[in-house]
Structure formats: C-alpha cells, structure tokens
Amino acid sequence: MTTTVAPDVAAIRLAGGAWRDELRAARMVWRREIIRFGRNRLRIVTSLAQPVLFLFVLGTGLSTIVRGGPATSGSNFRTFIFPGIVAMTVLFSAIFSAVSIVWDREFGFLREMLVAPIRRSSLVVGKCAGGATVATLQALIILVLSPLVGIPFSAPLLLILVGEMVLMAVALTAVGMVLAARMQQVESFQVVMQFVVLPMFFLSGAMFPLAGLPQWLTVLTRLDPLSYAVDPMRRAVFAHSSSAAHFATLSPGLSWFGWRLPVGIELGVVLLIGVAALGIAIVQFSRPD
Q1: CB neighbours of residue 207 within 10 Å
Q2: Which end is more exposed in the chain, N or C (fewer Cβ atoms within 10 Å of the end residue's Cβ)?
Q3: Which residues lie closer than 8 Å to 225 by C-beta, 6 or more apart?
Q4: Hey, which residues does 255 pair with through a beta bridge?
Q5: pLDDT tens digits for 152-178?
Q6: What string of H, E and C letters represents the secondary structure of 204-233?
Q7: How far apart are CA 82 and CA 281, in angstroms?
Q8: What does pTM read for this prediction?
Q9: Which long-range contacts (CB under 8 A, 24 or more apart) does 108-113 make?
Q10: What distance in Å separates the CA atoms of residue 205 and residue 88, rounded to the nearest whole number?
C-alpha cells in the first residue's frame, strides 16, 4: 500500500485591513509618481524654465530700476525675490501634480486603484506624498542657484529652507488634490488651476513687499495661504544675507492688525491648511465616483 503526500501549498493572505497593507499601498502610489517624474525629462526642464526666467531676467531687469533699494547695499532685487521664486516652483509643481488624478480618471486607472482592497485614504496619502516629493525635488534645483543671487550656501539655511519647502509642498499638493477630486477632463482642470494658481502667486508677496499696500490688497494678501509660506523663507534668507538690516526695513513681513506674526504661527497656518485640505480630499475620494 502506498502513501500519497500532499504537495506543499503556499499560504495565501488576503490584503486589506492591516496597517502594513495600507502603508505598502501608499508607498506604491508614491513610487509610481516618482517613476513618472524621473522618466519625463522634458517636464523637468520646462518646469524649471519659468522660475529661471523670473529670477535672472525679470529680477535683473527690475534691479536696474529699483534705485536706492537693495542694489545700493550690496545685494540686489534677485536676492529679494529668490524666496518667492522658490515658493513659485513649489506652488506650480505641487498643484499641477494633481493633474495625474484627472489623467488616471480619464484612462480608467483611477477606478482600478479605487476598487483595491485598501482604504482610499492610503491612496490619497500616497498621491500627496508623491506630488510633494516631486515639488520639493524641483525646488531643490532652484536652491542650488542661490549663490548666484548673493545668498551664501550654509547648512543651517538649507535645512530651514528644505523643511519649509516640504511643508509647503505637502499643503499645496493637498489643495491641488481637492480641486482635482471631481474633475473629469484635463482641460477643465488646467483652466481652474490657472484661475487659482496665478492669484495665489501674485498675492503672496513673492515679487514685492507686503508692507505699505492699499487696504483692499492687504486683505487679499492675508487671505492667500502662500503668503504664510513665502514670508518664513524670506526671513531665513534675509537673516543669512549681508544686507539683513536693509532687507528687514524693506520687507517687515506679515502682520495681523499691526502685530508681526512669528514664524511658528505662519508655518502653523500652512500646516493647518495642509491638514484641512488633505482631510477634504480623503472625504471626496471616499464618496462614490
């Protein structure tokens, strides 16, 4: 009589429910965004063209007409707008990274991800982390140009700027995801983005000081969330500039009813906006499509 031995059967575990499955899903979505960014070299080059033009063409041109300004004190207008240009790079990259959601919806890939046995919040977190990473990487390239505009390379300054860039990138990517959550067409998304992004940039004080403005414009600048991201970066850059005192008088920064806002409160506002936008995005993606 012969005995039949049953072959080994590999254990099967259904995904979903465990925190490691959610973390793995978020990591895969993040990795997909990084791979897409790395393979699109044309996007990297073209997205950097606009900040470089603003910094070296517009900044140099305006330096020649800003008489009595920073140029007479050893620095120039490019030094002044550099934090704003870094913020602009993060803004455009972070907001437009959300366009991948609309693309995925049009091609049906988003539906495949939504039916996976994981929480939709994991997908949103992965998308947000991917967009924020891409925006931070592009801003780091602009940061390399800082010695060319009179800003010295120093480890403390770089650490401060990178930390603020990451916080700003996460918040702005979350805002972009809120706007893209219900968009069905890429064309509609681009129109809405232009309607949102350009006012945010011009009202943030990236190109001009926020002091001495008309009352109506002052109110608008205080309502712009990007203003609370640009000012801390500008403070850090000015503190490491040889003309810190002159820049401090030129741009005293953000204030509420005459009270100068501390950096901690400004960054807290950015964090609060990011958390709120991420929560709204999770709720929107949790609803039936």
Answers
A1: 18
A2: N
A3: 171, 175, 200, 269, 270, 273
A4: 260
A5: 778 889 999 999 999 999 999 999 999
A6: CCCCCCCCCCCHHHHHHHHHCCCHHHHHHH
A7: 31
A8: 0.86
A9: 110/289, 111/289, 113/29
A10: 11
